């Protein structure tokens, strides 16, 4: 019954921007399946109430359906879309933005004996699991507060903490726990990911970014690949191409200029890599984006 009520709550409270009156809580409703699109994942917990979503990260593909949740512990460039969504049966979902400080506070107030043993190695930045009943029940109780606004300020923080605890002690607990540990391997990789995102137009040496992460080059490369399913250079390319596509939506007649702005010195290389990523050359894709925006 919890999943049925979750569907009803998501359907009732979904807004075009996904936001809700509860800070950090998102509700989505998608009535049409669209071709896969690129975006940044954010650090988020996403629970599907109805329908299914498919996400690609590098060469890995994740699919999760009603009653399953996805954890994104690092802000990663992903390609994804909802599957078989229709106005009659829309895709419905709940999202909770994951805050490292909230995870750290929860870990500090708990006993190590209450937590499952950590898994070996650095986990992937994305993970999918079935949602236990008590987890779904807590999400339902949180969304019920949208019908009782005066209760949000007092009760929402308590229920969000409960949801986080269910995840921290669940199957993907290792992924979320590392998000709150300042010295975890995941945190070091997240620091390097953030640096590349902020300096994506600049050429860099992997040795320098490894030093920033506090790792040897071999350990950094291995752990970066484990978390992001990409090499650091491939990751930078994904960020550049995503930024280029956003710029082309507003500057469709300046393909060469957009390529230069995102870090490409060679227009031919920019066009080649853009086409490989999005299935059309920049000028053609820009015209398509302009048409979609006009509609």
From TrEMBL:
Signal peptide location: none
Keyword Transferase: no
Domain named HTH araC/xylS-type: residues: 190-288
Record SMART domains: HTH_ARAC
Transcription among keywords: yes
Keyword terms, alphabetized: DNA-binding, Transcription, Transcription regulation
A GO molecular-function descriptor: sequence-specific DNA binding
The organism's place on the tree of life at top rank: Bacteria
InterPro entries: Homeodomain-like_sf, HTH_AraC, HTH_AraC-typ_CS, Tscrpt_reg_HTH_AraC_N
Protein name per the record: AraC family transcriptional regulator
Organism whose genome encodes this protein: Virgisporangium aurantiacum
């Amino acid at each position: 019954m919890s999943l049925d009520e979750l569907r009803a709550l998501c359907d009732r409270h979904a807004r075009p921007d996904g936001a809700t009156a509860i800070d950090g809580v998102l509700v989505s409703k998608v009535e049409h399946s669209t071709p896969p699109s690129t975006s940044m994942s954010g650090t988020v917990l996403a629970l599907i109430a109805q329908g299914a979503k498919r996400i690609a990260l590098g060469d890995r593909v994740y699919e999760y359906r009603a009653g399953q949740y996805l954890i994104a512990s690092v802000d990663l460039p992903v390609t994804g879309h909802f599957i078989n969504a229709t106005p009659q049966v829309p895709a419905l979902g709940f999202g909770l933005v994951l805050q490292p400080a909230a995870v750290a506070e929860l870990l500090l107030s708990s006993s190590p004996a209450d937590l499952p043993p950590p898994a070996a190695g650095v986990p992937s930045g994305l993970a999918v699991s079935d949602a236990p009943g008590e987890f779904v029940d807590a999400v339902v109780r949180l969304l019920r507060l949208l019908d009782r606004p005066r209760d949000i300020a007092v009760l929402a923080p308590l229920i969000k903490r409960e949801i986080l605890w269910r995840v921290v002690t669940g199957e993907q607990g290792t992924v979320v726990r590392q998000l709150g540990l300042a010295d975890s391997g995941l945190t070091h990789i997240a620091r390097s990911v953030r640096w590349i995102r902020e300096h994506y137009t600049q050429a860099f040496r992997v040795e320098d970014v490894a030093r920033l992460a506090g790792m040897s080059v071999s350990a950094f490369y291995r752990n970066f690949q484990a978390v992001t399913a990409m090499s650091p250079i491939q990751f930078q390319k994904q960020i550049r191409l995503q930024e280029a596509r956003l710029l082309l939506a507003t500057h469709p007649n300046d393909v060469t200029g957009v390529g230069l702005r995102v870090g490409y010195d060679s227009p031919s290389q920019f066009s080649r890599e853009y086409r490989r990523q999005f299935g059309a050359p920049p000028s053609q894709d820009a015209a398509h984006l302009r048409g979609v925006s006009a509609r």
